[in-house]
Amino acid sequence: MTDLILETKKLTKEFLGFVAVNAVDLRVERGSIHALIGPNGAGKTTCFNLLTKFITPTSGEIFFNSQNITSAKPAQIARKGIIRSFQISAVFPNMTVLENVRIGLQREEGTSFHFWKSDASLDKLNDRARALLAEVDLLEFQDHITSSLPYGRKRALEIATTLAMEPELMLLDEPTQGMGHEDVDRVTRLIKKVSAGRTILIVEHNMNVISSIADRITVLARGTVLAEGDYATVSTNPAVMEAYMGTADAVLQGAHA
Ligand SMILES: Nc1ncnc2c1ncn2[C@@H]1O[C@H](COP(=O)(O)OP(=O)(O)OP(=O)(O)O)[C@@H](O)[C@H]1O
Ligand SMILES: [Mg+2]
C-alpha cells in the first residue's frame, strides 16, 4: 500500500460550461516530489487553486491525509499544512531578509505584532529564522534589504518563508519561471533539499527540472490526466509527445542532453 498524503477523486472545475479540470484523479505519495505538467491551459494552476480552496470544485472530492477536505476553507487548508508558495510569500521588499522570515514565523505562531514579547522569545525567533535561512543558503544575506537580492535568491527567500509555515505539503507553481540557468539550477537543488521530510507538488515547464527531481509525474492536457509515471515513462508516451507537439517535444528530448 502506498502512503498517500493527497488524493483527488474525479476533481472537476467548470467555468461557464468550459471544463478546465475534468474528473482528475491525483494521487500524491507522502515524501515524494510529484510534478504536474502539461501544455499551456491544461488546467494545472486551476488544480492548485482547487487544492488550496482558492476556488470551489464543481464536483469531485479532495482528501488530505485520508480526510475529506473538499469543503474546507482556505485558512483551514493552510492550518492543516497545505501551503502554496506564493500565497504567503509576499515578501516585504524594504525589510531585511531575516525580518521577512521572522514575520513568516510570527504568522505561524500567531504572535504577529505582539511587540511586547520578551527578548528571550525574540532571540528564539531569530534562531529559528536563521536556521531556515541556512536551509535555503541565504544566511550570509540575512541583513541585506530584500529588494537588493538577485531574482533567484528572492525565490529562495520565498521558499524560506513558506517553510516557516511548516508545510506538510508544499505546492510550487512554476518556481523557476523567468530564471536564468544558474538560478534554475540553484532553485532546483534547493527544492530537492527542502523536500526532505516533506511532500512537494510542483507545476513546472522546464523538463530538465522535472527529470532531475520529480519522483512521479502526472501529465494533464485539456483538463484530463493523459499519463502518469516516472520521467522515462511519461516522456516516451506517444499521447504525451503529441500533446506537446511543436513545443515541448523538443524540450522533452532536450532533458536528456
Ligand atoms: N477564472 C476562470 N474563468 C474562466 N476560465 C478560466 C479561469 N481560470 C482558468 N480558466 C481557463 O481554464 C483553462 C486552464 O487554465 P490554467 O490556468 O489552469 O492552465 P495551466 O495549465 O496552469 O496553464 P499555464 O501552463 O499556461 O499556466 C484555461 O483555458 C483558462 O483560460
Ligand atoms: Mg498555470
TrEMBL record:
Domain ABC transporter residues, every copy: 6-247
One MF annotation (Gene Ontology) recorded for this entry: ATP binding
GO cellular component: plasma membrane
InterPro entries (alphabetical): AAA+_ATPase, ABC_AA/LPS_Transport, ABC_transporter-like_ATP-bd, BCA_ABC_TP_C, P-loop_NTPase
PROSITE patterns: ABC_TRANSPORTER_2 (PS50893)
Record carries keyword Secreted: no
Gene3D superfamilies reported in the protein's UniProt record: P-loop containing nucleotide triphosphate hydrolases
UniProt entry tagged with the keyword Membrane: yes
PANTHER family: ABC TRANSPORTER ATP-BINDING PROTEIN (PTHR45772:SF3), CONSERVED COMPONENT OF ABC TRANSPORTER FOR NATURAL AMINO ACIDS-RELATED (PTHR45772)
Name of the protein in question: Putative high-affinity branched-chain amino acid transport ATP-binding protein BraF
